[in-house]
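Q: Structure for this?
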Amino acid sequence: MLAVKLAFKNLIGAGLRTWLTAAVLSFAFVVTVFYNGLLDGWNLQARNDTQAWEIGGGQFWHPQYDRFDPFSLQDAHAGLSLEVQRLVEQKKLAPLLITQATAYSGGRMINVLLKGIDADQRILRLPTSCFKTDSVEIPAFIGRRMAAAMGLKPGDALLVRWRDQHGVFDAREVTIVQIFTANVPSIDNGQIWLALDRLQDMTGLHNQATLLVAATDHQTPIELSGWIFRPPSFLLKEFEEIIRSKKVGSSIIYGLLLAIALLAIFDTQVLSIFRRRREIGTYMAMGMTRSQVIGLFTLEGGAHSILALLLALVYGFPLLRWLALHGIGLPEVADAVGMTMGEKLIPVYSAGMVLFAVALVVVSTTLVSYLPARRIAGLKPTEALRGKVQ
Amino acid sequence: MENKQIIDINNLVKRFPIGDGYFTALQGITLRFVAGEFAGLVGPSGSGKTTLLNLIGSLDSPSEGSVVVLGHEVSRLSHRESAALRNYHIGFIFQTYNLLPVFSVYDNVEFPLLLQKRDAVGRRKAVMEALDWVGLSHKAQSRPAQLSGGECQRVSIARAMVKRPELVLADEPSANLDAKNSHHIIQTMKRLNRELGTTFLFATHDEKVMGYLDRIISLDDGRVARDERPLCVNEAQSDSTAEENGHARRQARI
Ligand SMILES: Nc1ncnc2c1ncn2[C@@H]1O[C@H](COP(=O)(O)OP(=O)(O)OP(=O)(O)O)[C@@H](O)[C@H]1O
Ligand SMILES: [Mg+2]
């Protein structure tokens, strides 16, 4: 208690220097929380969106299927067993058939994936019920990005050409009945969604699918013979790796801020122990042990972190809270990066992350305060009292 | 009580390493102090006064011989034990006051009691009493920077006395003070010596201080040259006679 009081009095007594250091330290803290919160928020949002729109509770893949190799689609399909069909009936699985195709629109030609999905599925948020229309022959829906890229709007028709199971080209006109908006580019860019039975007819792949999307609360056995289960953790691996690398990247920013503050504290400590020898000697003469004096100086340096956290509470808390409530708008960037990202990123500050940031600041500050203070251990009380440097 | 041995120094030698060899700062010192003494180490600069005081305060340890303070052989104490000895039994007064600038007068005086982990009520009572002894109750909330030199030294006397130690070691306590303040602080200490029976040991050049001492040990080149008890010092002596005594001694030298 005495040490705490003395540490704070000495610290506050040092005036501007202390507050400057504490300000930089608090800034490092707030930026740490902000960046990590932003990335965590992005991660969470992306995970939720991806699950809702694309992967559900995981996917059962045909063994040949490789999501990064469109040519694998040629052979990556298999018939649905009775067991699978039963699970589909129960809305526990949604089969997807995927075929490579070429689309022509407004004199442009692009490679697309045709994705067939059951009009009655309820696992993914895709607007599949729009397939239930008689007004057009082949209803299709696409995502906002695709629509923008090809200049399509609801009601537009476009020609698609694909190879059927025998490798024979065929072409039909499909009509866009709806354009959906989702934060998940991987179900949007270069993709045209059709009704599953229609695509099966077009390709001649009756009752076949490339993969099966499991319901989020799926009770299906993880083993479905002939299919390989890919849990969300697998399907989100790349994304999480990107988030992780972004975390490392952003840590450089706050790491730098932290380093500046720590350097200032280290410097203050070295100077204190050099200048305040007589004071150290006086503590010893009054009956403090060396380790108590070391503790005192460590605490004094470490208390910078408490001041910094208080400062952060004053300006950082409202700021971070405001950002969490209002989100951070990223109008155009999102589409450009091709990653799952909402129009607004909502930072999420988990207790664990904030505690980590607090610990980072407190521990590192205490450490750089302790290292110079350790030198007191080698100081004789008599030398200290004379105020001379050994 | 009056005859209780406080300090027992036998054949003390203190050497400091210098370059390849040693510098002998104290040699063959044998001294004894009993409770209640008001004694001073005098002698030219470099004669070893501070060195001896540091050894008695267990801030340093002897090269040879023994220093027994309050029954503790200083060289055998661990860091922790010697810190505890100082914490509970020895008060220090420095030439440069060495007050904590960020603390108020009150906080400075309270410091040793906080180290002893005394309870709040006991602390408050002891601090107010100590401030009363030195006549600074009204400055309890001032900062050292707002005080005169004499007042600072009185705060440091209160700080040394607040824990009611058996022994107070004062190294040149009046060296930074003018004559009036010097007399004042010595009189204060003399009074505490009489009223509380605290043993005081000074290191001093100051003739004004010497006038109040009931025992003067002259050091010369690390040895005890003289150990004398001025005649006119006795229990009933008033402060003014001590002052006169000082004058008389000065005049005698001239
Ligand atoms: N740590 C040390 N290392 C080497 N020599 C020392 C050390 N401390 C003291 N000395 C020497 O020991 C001698 C006695 O020093 P001390 O400080 O005790 O003198 P003093 O009587 O207090 O002098 P002053 O009246 O000037 O304060 C001096 O010559 C000093 O240089
Ligand atoms: Mg000296």
